[in-house]
Design brief:
This protein has about 220 residues and is mostly helical. The protein is about 75% helix and about 5% strand.
Length: about 220
């Protein structure tokens, strides 16, 4: 029975990753309706793992259940991202403050690994760099919340749908911005390693403020994801 449950969990995860990837790459666009049957046929699975994956994506804000009981890809505007980041600024600062107080040498090594992975995205192939960098960026910030040791704060952070905010930023930025963000990540990490909670909090807030300032810059094509 346990093996059956594990196989179902693995299949649901693969379906989730496939649908999420299609959303992030723009293959599935805002407002597009999703059919459980159509997705199941396309992915070669039954409707059950598709339904579970869509429920998870609904909880994270990537899709929503429309009145006709079909799922629809949600839109995400620049203003939506800004509101999320305003809350993130508070959470990131406090999480970095706590991480600097509580982080162990093992925690710092784990944080270094996530930073190294992010740098590898920027220095590697340019194909799909936005998507890969977003995943690495999420891992870095999540690790700080884990080191902070406040489970409620971690849940609130995840519930904000910050991946959508990062997606919007990545779609309207370039490698130079990534490098600036990574240097800011390094500043945060080094403050945490030094157990300098005041500096860690300041660097974390400054990092989010930089992203907010970047998003306020005018762009030629205002997109809604």
């Amino acid at each position: 029975m346990q093996n059956i449950k594990e196989k179902f969990k693995l299949k649901s995860t693969c379906v989730y990753d496939a649908i999420l990837g299609a959303i992030l790459h723009g293959d599935l666009k805002a407002g597009e309706k999703l059919s459980e049957t159509g997705l199941a046929e396309r992915l070669g699975v039954s409707r059950t793992p598709v339904r579970e994956a869509l429920r998870a994506l609904d909880a994270e804000g990537f899709v929503r259940l429309s009145p006709n009981s079909r799922f629809e890809i949600t839109s995400f505007s620049r203003q939506d991202a800004m509101e999320v980041l305003q809350i993130r600024r508070l959470l990131e600062g406090e999480a970095s403050h706590l991480a600097a107080q509580r982080g162990t040498p093992e925690d710092c090594c784990r944080l270094q690994e996530t930073l190294d992975a992010a740098w590898a995205c920027v220095e590697g192939p340019t194909e799909e760099v936005d998507f890969r960098f977003m995943q690495a960026d999420i891992a870095f910030h999540r690790t700080i919340f884990e080191i902070a040791g406040n489970n409620r704060m971690l849940r609130v952070s995840s519930a904000l749908g910050d991946r959508l905010a990062r997606l919007y930023v990545s779609r309207s930025s370039d490698v130079q911005m990534y490098e600036i963000c990574l240097q800011q990540h390094r500043n945060i990490m080094e403050a945490i390693q030094a157990h300098d909670d005041i500096r860690a909090e300041a660097y974390a807030r400054r990092h989010i403020e930089y992203i907010m300032d970047t998003m306020l810059e005018p762009v030629e094509d205002e997109r809604v994801l």
